[in-house]
Amino acid sequence: MLDVRRLRLLRELARRGTIAGVAEALSYTPSAVSQQLSALERQAGVRLLERTGRSVTLTPAALRLVEHADTVLAVLEQAAAELATARTELTGTLRIGAFPSAMHAILSPALVALSREHPGLELSVIELDPAGAPAALHAQSLDIALVQEYDYVPRTPETGLDTEEFLTETVYLAAPDPSPLPAHRNSTWIAGTPGTLCHIMTQRVCQATGFTPRIRHHADDFDTVLTLVAANQGVAFIPELGLQNVPSSIHLTPLPTRRRTHLAYRRGTADHPVIAAARAALHSAAKDLHKAASTSH
């Protein structure tokens, strides 16, 4: 019988590419990961890893085994979810990952509702870029997370995770004047840290308009970005959730570009009472936010 914990290590190796990466994500030592993977090879009776110096690659047999591992782990998650429905009270830890602009507008009211309705839950919130959420879910350092995509930066499907639609936002051009986007081909731009979705989106939207943005400032907090725009340090793209504190000197131009947020969780956990409660609270907070926005308009 193959060891499930070792299958999980193999799956993480397929995703992260290095034994050191697996060890860091799952709080193992690299030598412990290597030992467990060698034991899995002995159990399987076939070679799973090709070792060349310090690098390793998965054999075709290992890749097939990873596909089975996704299925096995999802079934185990589902079994645990079904057992949890027999409990009369929700207890344990719920770890939620969210991006900064969702923290105040959505996550705060959702946490208040969860604490009130399920006082036995121990809530843990982690702020992170959506690009890092899938890996954190697989590593079980998160239970549910908000992940994103933009029209020009589609999300890469992740095996072993389920997602559901959550929120769609308009993206705005924030500038000192109402000039349309093409007029800013020679402007200075403000974008997120290189590698983040916001940074990639800024580049691709501008390139689709016919120019490459000249990015001078990098900031991930939208309040900081708006402060820089108000100080005439550049122009920027801001999604709706980032427009909580807009200086009066800034002009906002709605664009056809959209940011779409999904809820993500490990496959098999959707109906776990804790995850179901989190999903309900988050959807309720998003619905209330939409109602408030509609009323203000």
UniProtKB/TrEMBL annotation:
GO molecular-function term, one example from the UniProt record: DNA-binding transcription factor activity
PROSITE patterns named among the record's database cross-references: HTH_LYSR
Keyword check for Nucleus: no
Transmembrane residue ranges: none
Record InterPro entries: LysR_HTH_N, LysR_subst-bd, WH-like_DNA-bd_sf, WH_DNA-bd_sf
Gene Ontology cellular component list: protein-DNA complex
Pfam family, one: HTH_1
The HTH lysR-type domain, residue ranges: 2-59
Keyword Transmembrane helix: no
Keywords: Activator, DNA-binding, Transcription, Transcription regulation
PANTHER family xrefs: LYSR SUBSTRATE-BINDING, TRANSCRIPTIONAL DUAL REGULATOR HCAR-RELATED
Family stated for the protein in its record: Belongs to the LysR transcriptional regulatory family.
Name of the protein in question: HTH-type transcriptional regulator GltC
Species name: Nocardia macrotermitis
